[in-house]
Write a structure and sequence with these properties.
Layout: H1 3-32, E1 37-52, E2 58-72, H2 83-87, H3 100-129, H4 135-138, E3 145-148, H5 153-157, E4 164-168, E5 171-172, H6 176-184, E6 190-197, E7 200-207, E8 209-213, E9 216-220, E10 223-225, H7 235-261, H8 273-286, H9 288-306, H10 314-327, H11 333-361, H12 364-372
Antiparallel strand pairs: 1-2, 3-10, 4-5, 4-6, 6-7, 8-9
Length: 373
């Protein structure tokens, strides 16, 4: 399949599935809590297809497949609805009349379904391909090199995948974890590595790199461990491992987000829809299980982003509901309105920033400078 076509199809599948599952969470929770759902839409803009189910919900597939939404009946309150709208409300089935707990469940269900989807996808991958080795599996292995980062100190020194690092400055290296500790404690130093390659020992001088984390410099070599093959596991073990992996990715997301907020990681790492489309095509080319793994990670990202305490996002609404539960009355409409406006502007700004990052990575602006020059 041509690369462009594969990228387009993979992006449509990935984004379509993730958005559908997220909105299905809102829809299912609304039905559970007795709220009528007026519209379930995949995409925005003009509907390409639409139909109405036996429960009276209109399902839509729209022309711009970059998101979706569920519209609960009576989502707006009486003070913001027109008399004509209020006259069509179904008693007992409006969103605004439900207790704050029911409203919070409906809103929280979207991200929760994203996390559940990630668990299911990881479980399928582990059941098909086996559970990848984790830190405890390879830390005690020989310090065999599985990969070398391009442009890293190891790359410049001539270290290759398959090499075994036996010594650092004459100190024996029993396992990869020991190599990590020695390198990490030597930021910026010139060291001599004794490397075993094809049965022959080589002495390679290396100028280590340095990175700062938490105010402390750490040495960098730029190699990845050669991991053992995945372990074949039972369906039950695959499910347990999937839950653990989802938790690890969630913690990693929080850590990465905090590093961007505190300035330890450049915001240029933020990617948008274009980069998601590009990566979808790349993972699709790598194989079915690779694409499922990418979808699982992306589903967790979607759930975590939606839980941010930003008005307009699910997390912002949950903050308002938490305040309402504590105060015994809703946050004033004025405060909510200003919050939603500010949140909308923030989200638009982040979207534009991420899109510029994507276009920069693709080389568009370098190409424009070249053409103009």
């Amino acid at each position: 399949m041509p690369d462009f076509l594969r990228t387009v199809l993979a992006a449509a599948v990935v984004l379509g599935v993730l958005v559908f599952i997220h909105e299905l969470g809102h829809y299912s929770a609304a039905r559970w809590r007795g709220v009528h759902v007026e519209v379930f839409s995949i995409g925005f803009g003009k509907p390409l297809f639409r139909w109405r189910d036996k429960h009276g919900t209109e399902w839509r597939i729209c022309i711009l497949p970059i998101g979706g939404y569920v519209k609960p009946h009576g989502f707006e309150g009486p003070e913001e609805a027109s008399p004509e709208t209020r006259s069509t409300w179904l008693p007992g089935r409006t969103f605004h009349d439900k207790p704050v707990l029911s409203r919070a469940i409906v809103i929280a269900a979207g991200p929760i379904f994203n996390f559940l989807l990630a668990i299911v996808l990881f479980a399928v991958v582990f059941a098909i391909s086996g559970k990848p080795a984790d830190q405890s599996d390879y830390a005690a292995l020989r310090p065999s090199i599985g990969g070398v980062s391009v442009g890293s100190p190891a790359d410049k020194a001539g270290i290759k995948p398959g090499d075994v690092i036996e010594q650092v400055d004459g100190v024996s290296i029993p396992n990869f974890a020991n190599l990590q500790r020695l390198i990490g404690a030597s930021p910026g130093r010139q060291v001599r590595l004794t490397v075993l390659r094809d049965g022959h020992e080589l002495d390679l001088p290396v100028k280590l790199g340095s990175t700062t984390s938490g105010g402390q410099a750490t040495g960098q070599l730029g190699v990845q461990a050669q991991l053992p093959p995945p372990k074949h596991v039972s369906p039950g073990e695959a499910f347990v491992a999937a839950i653990q992996t989802t938790g690890v990715v969630m913690v990693g997301w929080v850590s990465g987000f905090w590093q961007i907020i505190t300035g330890h990681v450049s915001p240029s790492h933020l990617g948008g829809t274009l980069r998601i489309a590009q990566m979808s095509g790349q993972f699709a080319a790598a194989g079915f299980t690779s694409l499922l793994t990418f979808m699982a990670i992306l589903s967790i990202n979607l759930g975590m982003v939606n839980l941010l305490p930003v008005p307009v996002l699910d997390g912002g609404r949950l903050v308002f509901y938490a305040i309402e539960a504590l105060r015994g009355r809703p946050v004033s409409r004025g405060v909510q309105e200003y919050g939603f406006r500010a949140g909308f502007m923030l989200i638009v700004g982040i979207f534009l920033f991420a899109t510029v990052n994507d276009l920069t990575q693709f080389g568009l602006f370098d190409w424009l400078r070249h053409v103009i020059g």
